[in-house]
Design goal:
The chain is of the alpha+beta class. About 20% of the residues lie in helices and about 30% in strands.
Length: about 130
Amino acid sequence: MESHPLHIKVDRLPRHGLAVRVEEWLSNVRLQEQFDSFDAWLRVAATPANGAIAGICIEQDLLEFELRHGKRYLIEDYVRGARKFDCIIDSRVPLVAFLDAADHPGPWITVKRLFTVEEIVSMKQL
């Protein structure tokens, strides 16, 4: 049986998914059960919901793009040039971390209206 990505409109992406994880991490830090940075912890803690295991196909205006948990992508646009990012899916919340020139990830951010048309069209999984 072939699994298909979850389809969702960009404006219907879950709200506050990242806030819940921040609270969970802070609680662990207070109990001294967690010493990693939030971003490092989230990379390990995030798991896609059953419906999103095959990825999430996001509709933004007339375009669609697909993101998969644990994958790296390349996008390009005229202003910022080529940029790489890692993706994780936490339940049904796709998150990305852009990579610097040395491939070190930045903070996890949500994708709601993050990408330009040019970036969506150029998006490639590495």
